[in-house]
Amino acid sequence: MAIRDAFLPEFSQEMATARKTLERVPEGKSEWAPHPRSMKMGRLAGHIAELPGLITTALSQESLDFRPPGAPPRVPFVMTTREGLLQAFDKNVSAASAAIAGVSDEALMKTFTLSAGGKVIFTLPRLAVLRGFVLNHVIHHRGQLSVYLRLNDVPVPSIYGPSADEPLL
């Protein structure tokens, strides 16, 4: 079995759960944060929406510097409307799924380097980037977002089992 054939169902399941969580993000709360050092809700939701796009980048390029020296830094995505948030997420997930479906095992073993301002953050096999940096990163921030939802009295979806708001049965 090709690695992509084992990874794609896991990716699809986690993205479906991430989407359920993003569907609950309330409009008008983009500036809300539980603490002054915490990400604001609109940026956190935007970050979850943009992360799957890194898969397409990692599978089509050898490296990415998201703050390239001498050039303007990448502008982070911030939710302004739920519709726009879900459109961005769906677009990134669709492109990532297509890229995964077409990748060979050999290509997944090639390295990808992520840098900021010319400083290397990591160099990893692309498969490790997909699983460790993108998938786990989405899961981590999805967990944060579920806490933000709870603190705003928004029903939390079931993620890996029932939630207090959404029993499985």
Describe what you observe in this structure:
The chain has 169 residues and is mainly alpha-helical. The chain has one domain (3-151): Four Helix Bundle (Hemerythrin (Met), subunit A). It contains 6 helices and 3 strands; from the N terminus they run αααβααββα. The chain has helices spanning 3-22, 41-50, 53-60, 82-101, 105-109, 126-151, and strands at 63-65, 111-116, 119-125. It starts with a helix and ends in an 18-residue tail after the last helix. The model has no long low-confidence stretch (mean pLDDT 96).
Quick structural overview:
The chain is 53% helix and 9% strand. It is mainly alpha-helical and 169 residues long.
Blueprint of the fold:
Blueprint: H1 3-22, H2 41-50, H3 53-60, E1 63-65, H4 82-101, H5 105-109, E2 111-116, E3 119-125, H6 126-151
Parallel strand pairs: 1-2
Antiparallel strand pairs: 2-3
Helix pairs in contact: 1-4, 1-6, 2-4, 2-6, 3-4, 3-6
